[in-house]
Amino acid sequence: MASPSSLSPPPVPMQLFARNREKLLRSLRDHLASISRPIQGFVLLQGGDEQTRYCTDHAEVFRQESYFAYLFGVREPGFYGAVDVSSGRSYLFAPRLPAEYAVWLGEIKPLSYFKERYMVDMVFYVDEIVQVLHDHFGEAGKPLLFLLYGQNTDSDNFSKPAELEEMENFETDLNTLHPVLTECRVIKSELELDLIQYANDVSSEAHVEVMRKIRPGMKEYQLESTFLHHSYMYGGCRHCSYTCICATGENSAVLHYGHAAAPNDRTLQDGDISLFDMGAEYHFYGSDITCSFPVNGKFTKEQIIIYNAVLMAHDAVISSMRPGVDWIHMHKLAEKTILESLKAAGLMLGDIDGMMAKRLGAVFMPHGLGHFLGIDTHDPGGYPKGTERSKEPGLKSLRTIRELKEGMVITVEPGCYFIDALLVPALGDPTTSKFFNREEIIKYKNFGGVRIESDLYVTANGCKNLTHCPRTVSEIEAVMAGAPWPLNSGSSKIKEEKGSV
């Protein structure tokens, strides 16, 4: 029997992480030189520790801390890593495991294994960190440690600086490393892009599998299970980039549906629109893809109106992306495109510029247009020092306001949702209510929402779409009816403007 997948998990080159360290060294040295500081000291990072479920001995599946993963690629818990700023030498420090480890968890690897596997210059045990760094400092006085400490502008949480029992034996710098290392992560190398592309290939294929399996009467979690199974079974992706959003009907207007209080457990109804936001992760690097389509495989007239409004915004942004383009402008382009479509369909009335001035785009799309993607779903670097988040509706939810640069990977995810918590105040405000056709809007009260999300790599002259899912109404209907993907030439003759209605 033919396999439902043509994918094969690729080997992960450790040169990727060695080059990430080289990139950090160049950037850090340049920064230190620009402020007339000595080119010396150690970058010291602490990797993640294995966590148990509350007070039990149930160990959660470990996933490495992201900054540590970026520089060292280590999949095991309990490690530290260091880079000598002056010489460029790289060090790993492995936990000294007890003899019982070999009984319960397998072979205790020698230090030489980690040196070869992770392509570092030297490997020691964690309990040797203080002595090793003093021995290799090469200068008089206490060695200087550049520690990772800074705020993640997506979560507002702060990164955890490495901790040592004998920290008083070192000089420490908590301010320099975080902005430099974060900026390194913003621009992706070709080796990083290969892993992000693979995660996209796995996820795109798994989304298509969901399209083919979905039926009225199923539970949302059954489609989540389909995605997770395909990603792991055929793509080798043990981790997801984030908790799956598998929303149908009214749930598709809940932006972060799928959490513990709404665990993808609704029964699918004939006539529902579905919104599946799911992305696989491969060796730390992730994907973030959203597909929206009718549960029964046939778009209604109303679903076509909203879906095509979002698709036009999605395509307009992608067509406009290139280095130097302002991301706020892209967000507003998506809003304007959606409002124009809603006006053409009779849901909105009046002047589009007037709607934009009143920020009515945020009534239908309250979230930001997209975000950086890499080792984290919301990769850092969206708001470098000196930039400020807008306080306006919609714009305040942007995860970055930067100009695009070649080498960035960023999501494009416009959406159109009918959310009472936003529509009711807008309809009750005399300054905004005049723009809404109440008779038409009311027809969409229980519609839910549509989001279309792809992952884009910014190139020298434009961008490359890393995501390969059916996007047009005709493509989706054909694939849900059993057509192969990608479609064979001429396999679908449905006119996009009409869909199946």
UniProtKB/TrEMBL annotation:
Domain spans labelled Aminopeptidase P N-terminal: 12-156
Gene Ontology molecular function: manganese ion binding; metalloaminopeptidase activity; proline dipeptidase activity
Cofactors named for this entry: Mn(2+)
Pfam families: AMP_N, Peptidase_M24
Gene3D superfamilies xrefs: Creatinase/methionine aminopeptidase superfamily, Creatinase/prolidase N-terminal domain
Alphabetical GO biological process terms: proteolysis
Catalyzed reactions: Xaa-L-Pro dipeptide + H2O = an L-alpha-amino acid + L-proline
Keywords: Dipeptidase, Hydrolase, Manganese, Metal-binding, Metalloprotease, Protease
EC number, as in UniProt: 3.4.13.9
Database matches in InterPro entries: Aminopep_P_N (IPR007865), Creatin/AminoP/Spt16_N (IPR029149), Creatinase/aminopeptidase-like (IPR036005), Pept_M24 (IPR000994), X-Pro_dipept-like (IPR052433)
Record text on subunit structure and interactions: Homodimer.
Family (UniProt): Belongs to the peptidase M24B family. Eukaryotic-type prolidase subfamily.
Name of the protein in its database record: Xaa-Pro dipeptidase
Annotated source species: Asparagus officinalis
